[in-house]
Amino acid sequence: MNEIWANEAVRSAVLISSKPGSFIAGADIDMIKACKTSQEVTQLSQEGQKMLEKIEQSPKPVVAAISGSCLGGGLEVAIACHYRVATKDRKTVLATPEVLLGLLPGAGGTQRLPKMVGLPAAFDMMLTGRNIRADRAKKMGLVDQLVDPLGPGLKSPEARTMEYLEEVAIGFARGLANRTMSSKRSKGLVQRLTDYAMALPFVRQQVYKTVESKVQKQTKGLYPAPLKIIEVVKTGLDQGRDAGYLTESQSFGELAVTKECKALMGLYHGQVHCKKNKFGAPQREVKTLAVLGAGLMGAGIAQVSLDKGLKTILKDTAQPGLDRGQQQIFKGLNSKVKKKSLTSFERDSILSNLTSQLDYRGFEKADMVIEAVFEDINIKHKVLKEVEAVIPAHCIFASNTSALPIGQIAAASKRPEKVIGMHYFSPVDKMQLLEIITTDKTSQDTAASAVAVGLKQGKIVIVVKDGPGFYTTRCLGPMLSEVVRVLQEGIEPKKIDAVSTAFGFPVGAATLIDEVGVDVATHVAEDLGKAFGERFGGGNIELFKLMVEKGFLGRKAGKGFYVYQEGVKNRNVNSGMDEILARFKLPANPDVCTDEDIQMRLVTRFVNEAAMCLQEGILSNPVEGDIGAVFGLGFPPCLGGPFRYADSYGAKQLVDKLRKYEAVYGSQFTPCQLLLDYANSPGKKFHQ
User: To pair with 574 at 20 to 30 A between CA atoms, which of 303, 383, 384, 597?
Assistant: First the structure.
């Protein structure tokens, strides 16, 4: 930039990136991690502010030519320029995702954005971190001009589109320099009225109040960044730009050293870690996938495979089941058409890769079969034998079980090295995690193929060793057992939900059982109880069995702990549960029944079991343990996962809590050896 400003011959400039699919994807997080104090981070922010202010004040017009990701610091660079041209391409997205890392836009973004797109839209962008597509950005006034992508010619479509974007941007830069064009946008009537209203202090106060109460409701005050964003924007609008910029840089520094920010950054790095295939490239790419069972899970797995270009066969044993599965896939893809992230033509061409059938024809071409049939070892053995009779030698057999050990399933196989577990989470198209389970017989290449398919489906993948409940179901088990005990001690389901969401869980603990399905929870609890004995005790499993008998299976049956009705948001507690809870009532001990105790009883059992999985080698590292718990089970993201939480809360403090509850309830709270080791050496951390 200094060269441009110093050179008399240059009259205007275009900023364009030569990296395909990316304008600027944001600042380097490691720069922030390297800082020791909040003052150092504030310094970084101030340097960024000064640099972008020079661009904004530049006597020579600067045009940003945007193609691909324009995120965080990248967007702040773009909005400091005098004009923005973007390609109208699906890869072009603009966003301020800093809030998802526990930060705020720290290079002038909180001050420039409200002036550019208006206060409501700026808050929406900064508080959600949501991606804005190019056409929407143009409507909002975030981008001044769009360029349509070009098709193939002498060069690839991407290369031609970039040349065209550059040409158009240079044209604008010339026009701005020659004063034949103005960078002032004509605002529409609605925007002018909004701006006028926002200039009135009492209207702004109303907006702040509304936004604050919404944030408070959604974050339960557990995330400091959203409230800071509101405060910083407020300062700039009410006290002027100097105060605004100063507060922005100071708040950026303060947030960077909070434990919430460290937890969210840890999750970000964990996701990057889990997007790599540690087994290397598989020998053969999976091109045709067969899914057995067209239920909720089977259809979901088929959907996420189809829309990534895998040819998919969906097989079920009965026509009505197959029809429901196809309907679910169509509905899932059609909702993307409604949200404009797919065209109806793309939806139909994706669906053309799906074959639905009741028999095994075409399985001789399959590279991988994923079974999602009922959780019964005998049914699993039956389909495994049927499948092995028709599939080719290289084909992999994967089981989507949530608790049955893969070794037991593989016992019926002629080629156990080709058998692996792929545990998806429901609903498959929304939940990001995939837990892959290897037995001691699973070959390296089978694991490589399974991870490759998971990554292709867009999943965050963790790989764990085989054992009852693997990692995720096994951590959830003791916690849900504790939920039942708390219910038996007379705490209302609504109260349990309130206490667990206040701790940071996205779904209340009683609601979670309804979502999972009481019948499924019973089934898993029995299996894990047999495998682990007393340690998985707590609540009485007979309570679940009685619920199943009465048809209270949770959301899918319309009744569980709550009553569910179509379109009714505020659900009522199921009064039919009163008699069941009365029958299993236990005396409560007031020493361990405060709100904090209830939270800690649930969480310490979860964390203790997670540490046990690391101790036994089910988990290969704490990073995957944190990722699995947050993305698969909804462990509070602000705590960063069970291992990050053990580090920040302190292993010794956790052990003290476990001992307190152990004195009342016995061996279910006995801390595992690994936690004791960490508690005894204070310098030891799971994340160094």
Answer: 597
pLDDT band at 171 (very low <50, low <70, confident <90, very high): very high
Q: Which residues of 38-56 are buried (b: 16+ CB within 10 A; e: fewer)?
A: beebbebbbebbebbbebe
The distance in angstroms from the start CA to the end CA of the chain is: 39
DSSP-derived letter for residue 643 is H
Q: Which one of the listed residues 98, 248, 260, 435 is annotated catalytic?
A: 435
Q: What is the pTM (predicted TM-score) of this model?
A: 0.91
Residue 83 CA to residue 102 CA, distance in Å, equals 30
Strand 83-87 relative to strand 62-66: parallel, antiparallel, unpaired?
Answer: parallel
The answer to whether residues 605 and 480 touch, using CB atoms and an 8 Å cutoff, is: no
- Cα-only R_g, the chain: 28
pLDDT tens, residue by residue, 322-377: 999 999 999 999 999 998 888 999 999 999 999 999 999 999 999 999 999 988 89
Structure-block tokens of residue 106: 């720290």
Could you give the 3-state DSSP secondary structure of residue 615? helix
Alpha carbon distance 1, 59 (integer Å)? 12
For β-strands 419-424 and 433-438, DSSP reports them as antiparallel
The DSSP result for 50-75, as a single string, is HHHHHHHT-SS-EEEEE-SEEETHHH
Pairing of strands 433-438, 83-87: unpaired
Strand-pair partners of 147: 87
Q: Picking from 40-49, 89-98, 565-574, which range would have the lowest pLDDT averaged per residue?
A: 565-574
Which among 363, 369, 602, 292 is positioned nearest to 476, based on CA atoms? 602
- What is the pLDDT, as a whole number, of residue 170? 96
Residues with Cβ within 8 Å of residue 381, at least 6 apart in sequence? 409, 411, 412
Q: Choose among 48, 2, 57: nearest CA to 28.
A: 48
Decide: residue 404, CB within 10 A, 0-12 exposed, 13-18 middle, 19+ buried. buried
CB 524 within 8 A of CB 473: yes
Which two structure tokens, joined as six digits, stand for 170? 């240079």
* Neighbouring residues of 62: CB distance < 8 A, sequence distance ≥ 6: 12, 13, 14, 15, 55, 81, 82, 83, 173
- Identify the burial level of 60 via C-beta atoms within 10 angstroms of its C-beta, where 0-12 means exposed, 13-18 middle and 19 or more buried: middle
Whether the CA torsion 219, 225, 226, 231 is positive or negative: it is positive
Question: Span 591-604, mean pLDDT?
Answer: 94
Three-state SS for 145-201 is: EEECCCCCCCCCHHHHHHHHHHHHHHHHHHHHHCCCCCCCCCCCHHHHHHHHHHCCH
CA distance 529 to 535: 8
For residue 175, the one-letter residue type is G
Report whether pLDDT(200) > 80.
no
CA distance 99 to 287: 38
Give the pLDDT of residue 90.
87
Q: How many CA atoms lie within 13 A of 663 on its CB side?
A: 8
166 is catalytic: no
Which pLDDT band holds residue 118 (cuts at 50, 70, 90)?
Answer: confident
Residue 28: its H or E element: none
